[in-house]
Structure formats: C-alpha cells, structure tokens
Amino acid sequence: MRTMWLAAFVLGCCAGSAAAQTPAATAPAPAGQSAAPPASGGQAPPAKPEAGSENATDGYTYDPAGRRDPFLNLLGTGLEARATRRGDGPAGMSVAEISVRGVLQSRGALIAMIQGPDTKTYIVHQGDKFIDGTIKAITPQGLVVLQEVNDPLSLVKQREVRKMLRSLEGAKE
User: Fold this and answer.
1) DSSP-derived secondary structure letter, 90
2) CB 3.0–4.6 Å: which of 17, 59, 133, 165 could bond 147 by disulfide?
C-alpha cells in the first residue's frame, strides 16, 4: 500500500515539474521570428539568427533588459581604460611622468620647472603634491620627492626619489 502511494506521489511530482516547464516553451516568439509548435519533448527548436544580423556568426546573444550579463567576468579583462579623475597641472601627474627642466631662485627660495607628459612646463615649489608623492626639497641639482609606495607587501610606505636636472638620457655625447 505504501509503495503504491509513493509511486503515485513520485509520478505526480514529475508531472508537475513537466507542467512547470511547458509555459516557457509556449512563450510568444520575439518580433521577426515565426512561432513554431514545440518539438517532441516539450522544448522549442533553437532560434536561428537572421542572415543580416551582427550576431549571426558568434551564435551568442544576450538581451540584458537592465541586468548584467551573467557570463561576463566581474573583474574585467584589464584591457578597459580606467576612468580615473586626475587633477590639473602637477597635482594630476605621477612622479614617474615628470622630468626636471630647470631650477631657479625666486625670493630667496629655489623653485623648479618640470615638464609633464603633456609636454607643458610647470613651476613647482617645495611642498607641492603629485598623485603619488610630495616635493620634499628642491636642490640646485634637481628635486627630492617623497613617493608613496602602493605595494601592500612592502614594509616601506614611502621612498625618497631624486629627479635630477641633468639625467643620463638627456646628456649628449
């Protein structure tokens, strides 16, 4: 008696889950495609892309409707450009991007002329900030910059970088 009741229960559950799957197969077809009757087994045949569509070759389409694609990596590929907001002038440059073009004396203090990656020349003073550092001192030979180290494994959080007025790559032989 229990076996018959269990068999009837299992058959009823399987029939219920099959009925739950059939509404997805009878959903209306998207515009531009004809509605075909479901094939045997309760599944609709795979949709064929139109010959003129862009996705005809890759076979993968996704209509996000406001949701993200679940098959894309959340971390990104690293090829996308990061949208970082940089300040104007020297405050928007890193220490590695600048080169010292001159050192001047003004009102008893030394100031430096630096060239950024935009090939413009800027005047900087002791204490001015870059993205990753601060000018500690200006000497007749160049700049001394305290650069912040962004390596989480490093024990040192700042290092002293000297940007010389006349470097080896600028010297003529």
Assistant:
1) G
2) 133
| Short-list 141, 50, 149, CA closest to 96 | 149
The amino acid sitting at 132 is D
Burial class of residue 172 (count of CB atoms within 10 Å of its CB; 0-12, 13-18, 19+): exposed
Give the residue among 170, 161, 166 at the shortest CA–CA distance from 134.
161
Condensed to tens digits (0 to 9), the pLDDT of residues 129-144 reads 999 999 999 999 999 9
CA–CA separation, 61 and 67 (whole Å): 14
Cβ burial 111-131 (10 Å sphere, 16+ → b, else e): bbebbbeeeeebebeeebebb
CATH 2.30.30.830 assigned to 89-166: yes
Q: Which tokens in the block code for residue 170?
A: 């600028």
H/E element holding 18? helix 2-25
Question: For the whole model, what pTM was predicted?
Answer: 0.48
Q: Measured between alpha carbons, how far apart are the two ends of the chain, in Å?
A: 103
pLDDT in tens, 55-89: 455 676 777 787 877 777 777 665 555 555 677 88
